[in-house]
Each structure stands twice: as C-alpha cells, then as structure tokens.
Amino acid sequence: MFSSIASLAILLTSSLLIPTRACAPPVNASDAFRIGQDGPADVATLGYSLNHFSLLVNDIDASMHFYNKILGMRHVFTFQATPEYSIHYLSFSQGGSNGTGYQTGEALLAQKSNTMGQLELIYRKNCNSSDHSAIPATTQYVNTFSHVGLIVPDIRSFQRRMEKFKVPILKKTGETSFDDEVRGARAFGFGSDIQAGRMTVMALTAIGFEKFAIVVDPDGNTVEVQPEQV
C-alpha cells in the first residue's frame, strides 16, 4: 500500500495532527499507523481462511454483467433454490493447467473450497407487484458494509476500461477527493457529514489512498481498486 519505505517512515515519525471528527480527540500521525503485534493464532484456527463474500443484489443480470464481463470474474455456478431465489458464485481464474490462465467451470468448481476471494451474489425475485422497493446500497445510506476490495496490475488501464464500459467512477486514481462527495461519504461511514469525510480522505493519503480508484457496481455498492505492489 505504501509507495516507498520513505513514505512509511514519514508517516510514523511526523508530528503533524491528522484531522478527525470533532467528537474524537486529534490523532498524532506518529500513532496513526500501527503494525499488528499479536502472537500466533490459536492452533485450533489453523487452516481457517476467508473463502467468499456475499452481496444481495437487485438485478442479477446487471450484477453478473458487471462482475463477470467487466471485472473478469468467472461464473463458477448458479443454484436456483426456488423459482424466486438463486445464488451465483464467481471467482477469478487461478492459473489453469494449459498455460493460458483459462479454467473451465468444472475446474473452478472443483477448487471452490480451496479458493480465496470468491464472490457470491444472492438474488430474490420480487414477485409482489405492489412492492417496488429495492435493497439500498452503501452509497445510499450508511450501513455495516463499505466496499469490495480489488487488486489490479495496472490501475490506469483498469480506469480506462471502466470508462469504456461507462461504469460510474466515484474516485479516480491520482485524486484525493470523491467526484460525488455525498455518495463517497456514505460509502465510507460518514453519512451526511461530508466535511469529516473530506478531511479523513486527505488523511488517508498517508497510506496511498490517492493511488486508489473507486467504482460503483449496478446496485450502488463500491469497489475499491488498488494497484498491486511490485
């Protein structure tokens, strides 16, 4: 995440104060970033891993197009539990045995339990014609979900791809503010407090936030995209 060891050193030794919400005391920059110091995990948890993340979606066709066709995740399987309720698994290819990086759906499914970072989309068709309400997204009001995180080898190429497919970009790489500060503040937990969100985004530049791009999926949830470290 840090562009260089020097930037990390500046963060850890600076005496500047990072602005925070008025309800909290100022944070000294030298105390802002702390590397974890906890010991080994309980031996009983060895082998645990984060296998997948799940999103409730309003339009399964739009969501599948975004995550599958635009972001490049592969369709592992769909399970139609009832006529109204379905789950859809997606995963990035994990290499492939033929050197092309391509894996069949069968190969992806066979590795499902040993693959990290998969996405599960859950869709329930609304059959009640009198109820047209949609599931609200993180950019619509603050909830416990913030964003999906993605790593890409070339973030400017990624950004051009998003522009090509007319995907809403909430923050472009190289910028230190959201194009839509209202939606950005909601997605990162600030609700209507745009000023607090603006100040915190500036503080996050200490850990390279200006290099990130943030885009919006069809439901209005955010995808934070970071360049891979080399």
Automatic annotation (TrEMBL):
<dbReference type="InterPro" id="IPR037523">
    <property type="entry name" value="VOC_core"/>
</dbReference>
<protein>
    <recommendedName>
        <fullName>VOC domain-containing protein</fullName>
    </recommendedName>
</protein>
<dbReference type="Pfam" id="PF00903">
    <property type="entry name" value="Glyoxalase"/>
</dbReference>
<dbReference type="InterPro" id="IPR004360">
    <property type="entry name" value="Glyas_Fos-R_dOase_dom"/>
</dbReference>
<feature type="domain" description="VOC">
    <location>
        <begin position="49"/>
        <end position="228"/>
    </location>
</feature>
<feature type="signal peptide">
    <location>
        <begin position="1"/>
        <end position="22"/>
    </location>
</feature>
<keyword id="KW-0732">Signal</keyword>
<dbReference type="InterPro" id="IPR029068">
    <property type="entry name" value="Glyas_Bleomycin-R_OHBP_Dase"/>
</dbReference>
